[in-house]
Amino acid sequence: MTKNFLHLMLMMGLAVGAAAQAETLKINGSTTVNLPAAEAAEALRKEQGLDIQIDTQGGSSGGISMLGEGLVQIGMASKPVKDEDKAKFPKCDFKSIHVGEDAVAMIVSADVWEGGVKSITKEQAAGIYEGRITNWKELGGADRRIAFFNKEPGRGTWEVFTHWVYGDSKKAPQVNFPEVGGNEEARSKVGGTRGAVSQLSSTWVDNEKIFALGIKTEAGEVVEPTAEAISSKRYPLSRPLYLLTNGEPAGTAKTFVDFMLGERGQALVKKHGYLMLSELK
Amino acid sequence: MTRFFCWVFSLLALLAFGGLLAVFLWQSLPVWQAEGVGYVTKNRWFFRQQEFGAAAMIYGSAMVALVALLVAAPLGLGTAVLMSEYLPNRLRWGMKVLVELLAGVPSVVYGLLGILLLREWVYDSFEAFDLLSGDTLLTAGLLLAVMVLPTVVTLGDDALRAVPSTQRRAARGLGLTRAEVVGSVALPQAARGMGAALLLGFGRALGETVAVFLVVGRQDNQLPERWWSMQPLLESGQTLTSKLGGAETSIAYADDLHWGAMMGLGVLLLVLTGVVTLLGTIFRSRRNANA
């Protein structure tokens, strides 16, 4: 009980006993899923007068744990719910609803891109992550230190990255890099720092301040995160986007899920640069 | 009657703080059992390997608060002297209002300003040091300096105003100049109160979360190799508050030991700020003792 309460205080900064309205639909989780979901919520507020609170506390992990705690009706996650998550919250019957697909890019700042680094291999990514490669010279770029911003633990983006490099997030070594939270933060920090690299959803790449490196396969082929490469699974760093509910969605939660799966919701998924369900083979 | 209520409410406040500390201690028990003293002395925080040593965060917190104080002390106390000793009353009130306004700015706004202006400024100004990014302990310290200024100015001003003006007049009557009066009459008597102002500012700097979180870089296990150089200040770090404000709290929630470690940071923070604030208050309450 105490733990529950403290957690609530820390996560939400809520005052004690702030009475929540019963009919409020609370949604929390991944910033990646939040982009289309927030627009969907806005549309439902306007058109159907639904009372929806949508937030991105703690990323995917925050979505999973707050749903497990019963603090929200819908969680947003850009990674599958693992068995250990389910074991942590035995009371919660996690239902994952697939709403789209996203690709994670290795993004670099403009000076790195213009310095001639256009692609990266899995080994090079591991080298940077483990601190063995510290200068862009080693990747054929200019003589500049690598400023690596690591996504903070619990973020879907980080899980996709480590899964790609190490085959399993659990095998990733523990490292000490400056950490970034949401996608906005990763974008602004990489954009404003020379020699920067981080992991970020490819949607956010603007090709002005931040650029996505191609992934160089062992065969020497460079794969860019294009829609075609993602849907055909040639691009290795892709991930599913989920809405999570406790049991089958009902009431306003069902309204929301149906909207996201419907034509307009899917259009929002596409609008934000992700792949719609219909585009996935 | 009044006295009775004073006692009751003082006790309530004490109970509240004690209760808070007790809850946090109780929640953090697992980590004390697992790590012992190592929890505060070890510089290894790897939660996936269940290793918890908070030394780097204690260092980070102390460092940013110290930088804040080093910058805010001359500025803040100087402003206090100007306000109390040199400005005519009207102007003084104007200044006071401005300082109060500064105190009223929400910390997240300071944080965003820090991202917009201070990060860039530090990044560009210290380019010679080959910074990795603009998120450094120094950036956080400078931002905190601005945030604790109102505390230092207001309390410093109060301490100076508490020195009776009859003494100033007597000193002027003996032929001392205005500057001499400030230097040899007002300042020595207000010294304790000004010390208290600094201590309370330090306490505020230790506890500030949002602004620091946004510009400190959040890099774990950063203890300096060389203590006497500028370098450690120009690297990213982690403070007790930035760690607690991060995503790890959500992850820790499912694991008793990890949760205990996070709560332990809360204990450290409470104890640190508590001790500093207490010292400051003791200092203040004795400010007119003629030592």
UniProtKB/TrEMBL annotation, chain B:
Q: Which residues cross the membrane?
A: 57-77, 97-118, 138-160, 196-216, 259-283
The record, for Gene3D superfamilies, names:
MetI-like
GO terms for cellular component:
plasma membrane
Its chief place of residence is: membrane
Q: Which GO terms describe its biological process?
A: phosphate ion transport
What domain of life does the native source organism fall in? Bacteria
Does the entry feature the keyword Transmembrane helix, yes or no?
yes
Gene Ontology MF annotations = phosphate transmembrane transporter activity
Which CDD domains has this protein been placed in?
TM_PBP2
* Keyword Protein biosynthesis in record: no
Query: What are the alphabetically sorted keywords of the record?
Result: Cell membrane, Membrane, Phosphate transport, Transmembrane, Transmembrane helix, Transport
State its location(s).
Cell membrane
Domain ABC transmembrane type-1, first and last residues per copy: 58-280
Q: Which family does it belong to?
A: Belongs to the binding-protein-dependent transport system permease family. CysTW subfamily.
Q: What does this protein do?
A: Part of the binding-protein-dependent transport system for phosphate; probably responsible for the translocation of the substrate across the membrane.
Question: What name goes with this protein?
Answer: Phosphate transport system permease protein
Organism, as annotated = Phragmitibacter flavus
